[in-house]
Design goal:
Blueprint (H helix, E strand, L loop, with lengths): L1 E12 L7 E9 L3 E5 L6 H9 L1 H4 L3 E9 L2 E2 L5 H7 E4 L3 H4 L5 H11 L4 H15 L14 H13 L5 E5 L7 H16 L3 E5 L3 H7 L2 E6 L2 E6 L1 H5 L3
Parallel strand pairs: 3-8, 3-9, 6-7, 7-8
Antiparallel strand pairs: 1-2, 1-4, 4-5, 9-10
The structure holds adenosine-5'-diphosphate (2 copies).
One adenosine-5'-diphosphate binds next to loops.
Family: Belongs to the ABC transporter superfamily.
Organism: Parafannyhessea umbonata
Protein name: Energy-coupling factor transport system ATP-binding protein
């Protein structure tokens, strides 16, 4: 079954001269672990925004085609409905954090989505445990390393139990060891059935963890296959 389906999606940001995405059709199978790679400006962040519903709900521009998540057409439902199904970790992790400490960061989303009080404590501990950060529960976010912050962002989304998680270069600011730890966490989520779509520039990580790699170039899909197929090509 498809977790996400993009049908002939094109998007041009208001004021831009060319399309950020140009007739992209992709099906992301439920439970898959997909890496997206490509040069700067290729449309990777735009693709993530389409999957998360930020396009068309947040960014102004011309949208064509359709994006279906969990059977919903993102253009026809509210952004909060999309966010229940698709969690996203933005490139600017500091801008995404809303609370002062880790526990509050996780509580914020749960309260926002209106989860019942009785369910909240269970969800917080599940999220901390699954992201492997139970020891960080009481920590101030400003004292955390980049890798720890990524895991907090992942935990805050996990608490909502999305079916799909989209991450925009979660390892960009991380050293190799922390990068691997983030991918180990993603593998753990994926093992629980969450579809993972991650923008990542490090070929070694994509080769080791992903079952599919999509190469974007100038708003189009240039290559799409297993890591072996894609990387033997270049
Ligand atoms: P990356 O290549 O790592 O995705 P960019 O440098 O392309 O990052 O973009 C950084 C930020 O600037 C993003 O939030 C993106 O939406 C925004 N941005 C990129 N290009 C433009 C543009 N031409 N006009 C306005 N905002 C832009
Ligand atoms: P990537 O993530 O692969 O670097 P992006 O999706 O950020 O690519 O950008 C794709 C194209 O869209 C680029 O030409 C970029 O300049 C443009 N773009 C991105 N964000 C904006 C924005 N907010 N406003 C206008 N143009 C943008």
């Amino acid at each position: 079954a498809a977790a996400v389906e993009l049908q002939h999606v094109s998007f041009t940001y208001d004021g831009a001269r060319r399309r950020a995405l140009d007739d992209v059709s992709l099906t992301f199978g439920a439970g898959s672990f997909v890496g997206v790679i490509g040069p700067s400006g290729a449309g990777k962040t735009t693709l993530a925004s389409v999957v998360s519903g930020a396009i068309p709900h947040h960014f102004a521009g011309e949208f064509r085609g359709a994006a279906l998540v969990g059977g919903m057409d993102t253009c026809e439902v509210a952004l909060t409905d999309v966010s229940r199904v698709v969690g996203s970790v933005l490139q600017d992790i500091d801008a995404q954090m809303v609370a002062a400490d880790v526990e509050d960061e996780i509580l914020y989303g749960l309260e926002n989505f209106g989860f019942e009080r009785s369910a909240i404590e269970k969800r917080v501990s599940y999220a901390l445990r699954t992201a492997g950060i139970e020891d960080l529960r009481r920590r101030e976010i400003s004292t955390l390393s980049g890798g720890q912050k990524q895991k907090v962002a992942i935990a805050a989304i996990l608490a909502i139990s999305p079916r799909v998680m989209v991450l925009d270069e979660p390892t960009a600011a991380l050293d190799p060891a922390s990068s691997r730890m983030v991918f180990e966490t993603l593998r753990e989520l994926n093992a629980r059935g969450i579809t993972v779509i991650v923008i990542e520039q490090k070929v070694a990580l994509l080769s080791e963890y992903c079952d599919r790699v999509i190469v974007l170039s100038q708003g189009s899909v240039a290559l799409d296959g297993s890591p072996r197929e894609v990387f033997s090509h270049s």
